[in-house]
């Protein structure tokens, strides 16, 4: 389930990156590529596990769903941290120098 | 078990490579090769973002499943000698496949960007030639 949710997040962030004129300012490429990297890695993991062990391809249970949601939250938190440290709009700098 | 260590290792190596390319570009004057280097710095940045992003999120998934812990020996499989062999096997097979898949995806991105760039520059040349006739 976390593969589906991460792939969904990758698609959404790529669409936002494409339509946003301020994609570089808000580091949307970082968020989008991080989601695509994780999606690719989990896809390989799922395919190899399915080929070697069989069973269900997607784990559909509350724990897997919770993991997927938490993974997206972790990625968004890291992206927000990088954005605030970079402070492209100078908002934090203005607050400090007030 | 610890498959994310293979793409994370590649991320460390490629980040160093990106820094070296970036430093060389800064040292050189404004020339054609400098433009090439800054282009490759940006392109290596795409690969590093995918590798680091994927590795960190996979590490979190392993933490969630109790396969890694925030205290030594960090990898749960290291506690049991019988699990060490399968762990290294998983890093060598699944981990390497993950790193290769991300690198291939990045190479395809570069190929598309290159082909698109060439077709745009070719279209620009054709329209310029057409305009002078």
Give structural attributes.
heterodimer; A: 77% helix; B: 133 residues; 0% strand; elongated
What's the SSE blueprint?
The complex is a heterodimer of chains A (98) and B (133).
Chain A: H1 2-19, H2 28-53, H3 62-86, H4 91-96
Helix pairs in contact in A: 1-2, 1-3, 2-3
Chain B: H1 5-27, H2 32-64, H3 81-132
Rg estimate of chain B, integer Å: 21 Å
**Between the first and last Cα atoms of chain A, what is the distance in angstroms?**
46 Å
The parts of chain B where pLDDT drops under 50 for at least 5 residues are none
Structural class of chain A: mainly alpha
How far the N terminus sits from the C terminus of chain B, by CA atoms, comes to 66 Å
Oligomer: heterodimer
Overall, the morphology of chain A is: elongated
Low-confidence stretches of chain A: none
Largest β-sheet summary of chain B: none
Q: Largest interface, and how many residues on either side?
A: A-B, 25 and 24 residues
* Rounded Rg of chain A: 17 Å
Mean pLDDT across all amino acids of chain A: 93
Task: Work out the helicity level of chain A.
Answer: over 70%
What structural category do the secondary elements of chain B indicate? mainly alpha
Structure description:
- The complex is a heterodimer of chains A (98) and B (133).
- Chain A starts with a helix and ends with a helix.
- The mean pLDDT of chain A is 93.
- Chain A is mostly helical.
- In chain A, helix 1 (2-19) packs antiparallel against helix 2, helix 1 (2-19) runs parallel beside helix 3 (62-86) and helix 2 packs antiparallel against helix 3 (62-86).
- Chain A is built from four helices and no strands.
- Chain B is mainly alpha-helical and 133 residues long.
- Chain B has three helices and no strands.
- Chain B has helices at residues 5-27, 32-64, 81-132.
- In chain B, helix 1 packs across helix 3 and helix 2 (32-64) runs antiparallel to helix 3.
- The longest helix of chain B is centred in the last third of the chain and has 52 residues, at 81-132.
- Chain B starts with a helix and ends with a helix.
- The model of chain B has no long low-confidence stretch (mean pLDDT 88).
- Chains A and B meet through helix 2 and helix 3 of A and helix 2 and helix 3 of B.
């Amino acid at each position: 389930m976390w593969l589906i949710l991460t792939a969904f997040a990758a698609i959404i962030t790529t669409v936002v990156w494409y339509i946003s004129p301020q994609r570089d300012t808000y580091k949307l490429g970082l968020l989008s590529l991080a989601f695509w990297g994780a999606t690719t890695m989990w896809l390989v993991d799922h395919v190899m596990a399915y080929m070697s062990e069989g069973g269900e391809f997607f784990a559909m249970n509350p724990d897997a769903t919770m993991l997927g949601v938490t993974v997206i939250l972790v990625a968004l938190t890291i992206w927000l941290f990088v954005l605030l440290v970079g402070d492209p709009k100078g908002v934090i700098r203005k607050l400090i120098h007030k | 078990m610890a498959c994310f260590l293979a793409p994370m290792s590649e991320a460390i190596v490629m980040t160093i490579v990106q820094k070296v390319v970036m430093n060389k570009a800064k040292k050189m004057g404004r020339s054609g090769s400098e433009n090439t280097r800054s282009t490759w710095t940006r392109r290596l940045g795409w690969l590093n973002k995918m590798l680091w992003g994927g590795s960190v999120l996979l590490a979190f998934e392993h933490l969630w499943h109790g396969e890694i812990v925030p205290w030594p020996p960090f990898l749960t499989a290291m506690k049991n000698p019988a699990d060490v062999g399968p762990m290294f096997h998983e890093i060598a097979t699944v981990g390497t496949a993950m790193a290769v898949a991300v690198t291939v995806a990045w190479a395809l991105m570069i190929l598309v960007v290159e082909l698109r760039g060439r077709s745009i520059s070719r279209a620009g040349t054709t329209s310029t030639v057409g305009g002078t006739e």
